[in-house]
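Exercise 7. Given the encoded structure of a 276-residue chain, write a plausible sequence.
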């Protein structure tokens, strides 16, 4: 009993020591962790600053790598050939999608209750037909034209990755906005706003995908630390474009969350969610 009583007294006396020790050690540990992080960030910033003069040479070297002969003008000409093939593929894609959507569009316009599930699915199938035509035309142009004019395989592969992702994103945007078919539009916006928003999002997303692809291609240059600086600048530009997209499409996103229903508990809930 005496031993237990002694240990109880010792424990009571040591109780204030624990918090005091924690209060003294934890701030020191937190301070040391913050100091280490700030020191590391400062070292990274100084290292990136020292690599700034090498950025123009790194960009020029990366641009020249797109051409098989290492020529900057040749890379620009190759980009022109790629843009020409992509333009033809997009035109044929839109023509094929419009031709395949004639029957679903007639069915939607003839329905007094608005677009049904089968009508919307028919439009999506038509969009997929257009995407398949784009892939077929691009593949044929790459094999028969781009290879013939001397476009490098790396440049053609990068362009294909960018263009395919862009057309998939454009397909999703078109399925929501439907600038040419208001009856099948999933959100309540005007025809003019739907067209402007579709063009803005399509172009901006193309720029974002191209910048991301260019940045990943440049990061393969492991011999130069300038690729790290280019990646940071690239990420800042992409994040800025994302913010622009968020503010520009805010009203359309709110309309998409609200839906078309105007009364009821679910309509009030979705309206509050859209405002939030």
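Solution.
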């Amino acid at each position: 009993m005496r031993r237990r009583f002694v240990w109880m007294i010792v424990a009571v006396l040591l109780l204030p020591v624990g918090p005091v020790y924690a209060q003294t050690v934890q701030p020191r540990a937190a301070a040391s962790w913050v100091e280490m992080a700030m020191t590391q960030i400062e070292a990274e910033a100084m290292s990136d600053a020292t690599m700034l003069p090498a950025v123009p040479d790194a960009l020029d070297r990366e641009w020249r790598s797109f051409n098989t002969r290492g020529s900057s003008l040749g890379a620009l000409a190759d980009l022109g050939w790629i843009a020409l093939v992509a333009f033809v593929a997009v035109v044929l894609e839109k023509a094929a999608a419009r031709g395949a959507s004639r029957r679903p569009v007639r069915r939607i316009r003839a329905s007094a209750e608005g677009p049904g599930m089968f009508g919307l699915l028919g439009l999506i199938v038509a969009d997929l037909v257009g995407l398949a035509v784009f892939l077929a035309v691009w593949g044929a142009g790459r094999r028969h034209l781009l290879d013939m004019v001397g476009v490098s395989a790396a440049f053609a592969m990068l362009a294909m990755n960018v263009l395919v992702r862009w057309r998939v994103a454009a397909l999703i945007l078109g399925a929501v906005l439907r600038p040419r078919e208001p009856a099948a539009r999933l959100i309540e916006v005007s025809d003019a706003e739907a067209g402007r928003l579709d063009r803005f999002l399509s172009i901006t997303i193309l720029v974002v995908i191209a910048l991301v692809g260019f940045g990943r291609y440049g990061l393969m240059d492991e011999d130069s630390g300038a690729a790290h600086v280019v990646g940071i600048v690239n990420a800042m530009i992409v994040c800025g474009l994302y913010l622009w997209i968020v503010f520009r499409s805010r009203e359309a996103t709110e309309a998409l969350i609200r839906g078309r229903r105007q009364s009821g508990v679910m309509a009030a809930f979705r309206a509050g969610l859209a405002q939030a």
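Remark. The chain is about 80% helix and 0% strand. Students should compare their own answers with the one above.
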